[in-house]
């Protein structure tokens, strides 16, 4: 998969990848979570085209991964939702779109549906939310660490932050394995999660934290009430307790033994659910 630079209307660009059949009747659009990037979907992007005739698209949100940087004015769910609307309208020119959102990615999808109701009504066919809660959930790093990231950068400055960053890998990996992954995770999954979070520490972690603190999404649910929704949660998720996704008004599924990183550790359960949502979208 080659990476595209997708230009947005305001001059920013997103790092975007595609897989599957570009002429397929439906597209699956994968939205990653806070302090992650499109790499979290690598297993899904490998397996999904073998399971269904679909086009698959994933990109790094603004301020994440290899996409353009964000600042305090653009590090908001609203701005990310507007970016998503541009991708749906211009980068996926035909057919229904099934959005799969992990954590913050699901929040972005909900806000987009509320802000761009006509576009969403015409193009969004179904939704699948992974490890997501409507109310506040301390995604990816607890609240004290989000504040620490801000203080860390302000006190030490960027040069010393870079030096410390290179020395916290082992501690970061141990802590993130406990926080984000479930029972007996694969070593490659642990390494990738630690790499993604470390990549976004402390700048993106601190920058996007206020957006998540303000992330009450109850009103956005009205915009998606008519769509097929599946909400999946890991049994061992320490950030989204089992039962929280019930408020998403969809069909709730619990993945035994899994933690917060369902795109990685729950891929065997996630891919069939995506295929089911594609069928729902094409049947509407």
TrEMBL record:
<dbReference type="InterPro" id="IPR000073">
    <property type="entry name" value="AB_hydrolase_1"/>
</dbReference>
<feature type="domain" description="AB hydrolase-1">
    <location>
        <begin position="28"/>
        <end position="271"/>
    </location>
</feature>
<dbReference type="InterPro" id="IPR050228">
    <property type="entry name" value="Carboxylesterase_BioH"/>
</dbReference>
<protein>
    <submittedName>
        <fullName>Pimeloyl-ACP methyl ester carboxylesterase</fullName>
    </submittedName>
</protein>
<dbReference type="InterPro" id="IPR029058">
    <property type="entry name" value="AB_hydrolase_fold"/>
</dbReference>
<dbReference type="Pfam" id="PF12697">
    <property type="entry name" value="Abhydrolase_6"/>
</dbReference>
<dbReference type="GO" id="GO:0003824">
    <property type="term" value="F:catalytic activity"/>
</dbReference>
